[in-house]
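Progress against Task 2.4 (sequence-to-structure conversion) is shown through the following example record, which the project officer requested during the mid-term review.
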Amino acid sequence: MRRRIVAFVLASWLAAACGPSAGPSPSAVIVTSTTSAFVVATPGAPPPTDTPTIMPQTSTAQSTPYDLLRLTNHPARDETPAWSWDGARITFSSDRTGVYEIYAVDNDGSDLVQLTEDPSIGFKEDPTWSASGIIAFSALFDVSRVFAFNVKLAEEKPFDLSEPTNEGYPEPLSNWYVDAYSPSWSPDGEKIALIMLDSNLVRQAFTINPASGKSTQLTNSSRPVHKPSWSPDGRWIAFSSETEGNEEVYLIGADGRNLTRLTHDPAYDSRPSWSPDSRFIVFSSDRGGSYGLHLMQLDGTYISRLDTGPGEAFDPAWSPDGRYIAFVSDRDGNAEIYRIDAPVLEP
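Structure tokens generated for the chain above:
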């Protein structure tokens, strides 16, 4: 995307939360749903002996939750959902044209629109939506690069990476010559967290300022880092890595300090997404033998698996208003975007 567009001042959609900068310190909370309510132990207290399962639906684990809504319906693969800043729409990637393009749909599944169109680029993935209506995404050329476009303009004419404008061809936000993946906008829209190769050709978490092009390396792991997710309060970036043997979820400050491992399970834990108040993280995991959505506190205290019904569930995305969690499921035979009611989190 042209620097002129991406350099716009992007308004913040969530206020920065106050609190100590040394690390996360959640307090006791009550989590309620239509079928359960319980107190999560204060950090340092012994774990409860009988923690009930959070079920935001009145159903059994293998029945269809009453609030489950299928948002896409196509034989192709629909993946990597991400919410608009106001929770009204969801952007995602799909190969329904034969190559992966970026799409958007209303949060009730209506008003589907294709936002990119370039059959010469086979993979366009991991869209992220800023508060000012800019979507950044990764596109695979000879290397993977991060581009961005104005949504309103793309709704009128899909963004084409190969089509020149009066200002030349669209330019990436990331380095032309370094692989870059999985962008995530900061709440104030001034930076993007993303994955890039470091000098040792290992995928690490970076932040980049789209206006200046300046990048800052956050992690220095011996193993690849995946899928960063910026907290709504702007203080933290969650991601996953195989640093200690298998894929686990980690937390690091937006300044690169206070690296913390959140999950400790032999399963594959990945794809973290934040609650709007930055107190909880929902993530994908195959603990229990199949992929599902799991909830934990900011200190890593595990709460429960969410009920999404039969079939595997992954790639969660918590809506900015806290009402829904969008995710991908293969319950109908191929990957589609679904939505369930999020657990009600009360202070």
